Amino acid sequence: MSALQVYVEGIGLWSAALADFEALKAQERGESVAPTPAKPAAATLPANERRRAPESVLLAVEVAGQAVAMSGRAAADLPCVFSSVYGDQLISDYMCTTLAQAPTELSPTRFHNSVHNAPAGYWTIATGCHAPSSAITAGHASFGAGLLEAATLCATEQQPVLLVCSDIAGHGPLGEMTGSQASFGCALVLSPQPGERSLCRLELTLEPHAGPMLHPAPRTGAWQEANPAASAAWPLMQNLARGDGECTLAAAETLALRIVMETAA
Considering the entire predicted model, what is its pTM? Predict the structure, then answer.
């Protein structure tokens, strides 16, 4: 296939170690970083919704809001792609436990927050967005698959697109299985054309093999290794913070995405 070219206009990031993209850039420069709040602010949501929303929603909305604010775009106009490896692991663990022990006590409210597109629903309602939205997962290739989906939509429709990828820490037996020990989210606003807000250009090409990226090396102790979304997104996020670089991400079991980044003129 021909290379896809898109321009990054906004970047959002949140984790227990870094509260936003500026904190990541400071970390890459070797500077000290201020402590991160206990949970994502998700200021885009109305106060009542923030109190009721699960962590998975707060995380996705927080990074989406950061990226859109940086881009200067109107959230209501942006088609969006939400990606997650495991969705809401806390609610999934609760539902499995409840169904096994007392199925009639399952909470309808918690059930509706368990679906994979819950963050997309909260975001589009809060921002008044009537543009298309989708929620996808591809295991540990979820970030790459989401980026490929968003970049393809951006290029074919010739309009800016919001990409959000996030995963929270696991809990109980499910958490032991997934190995997700921390929360992380990131977001990008992509545009098909360069503009005043362009931060860099990404050139994306497909490669046929993604096996090594889906079977990472033993952990080194770095914090991003404790979250599947962070592990997948980290090579690109580091390049964005540094201002250049190349990386290859898994987009499926047998599909890789080669990304060459250049600073926008």
Answer: 0.91
Amino acid at residue number 30:
G
What are the tens digits of pLDDT across the range 39-96? 999 999 999 889 888 999 999 999 999 999 999 999 999 999 999 998 888 778 788 8
Q: How many domains does the chain have?
A: 1
Q: What is the CATH number of the domain that holds 156?
A: 3.40.47.10
Tally of residues, the chain: 265
Q: What is the pLDDT of residues 141-152, one digit of tens each?
A: 999 999 999 999
Residue 111 phi/psi, 5-degree rounding, is: -60, -45
C-alpha 99/C-alpha 107 separation (Å) is 11
d(CA 200, CA 45): 29
Segment 246-255, tens digit of pLDDT = 999 999 888 8
> Which of 123-146 are b and which e, b meaning 16 or more Cβ less than 10 Å from the residue's Cβ?
bbebbebebebebbbbebbbbbbb
Strands 161-167 and 4-15: unpaired
Contact 60, 118 (CB under 8 A): no
Domain holding 214, by residue range, is: 4-263
List CB contacts of 170: < 8 A, sequence separation 6 or more.
86, 89, 90, 93, 176, 177, 178, 179, 180, 181
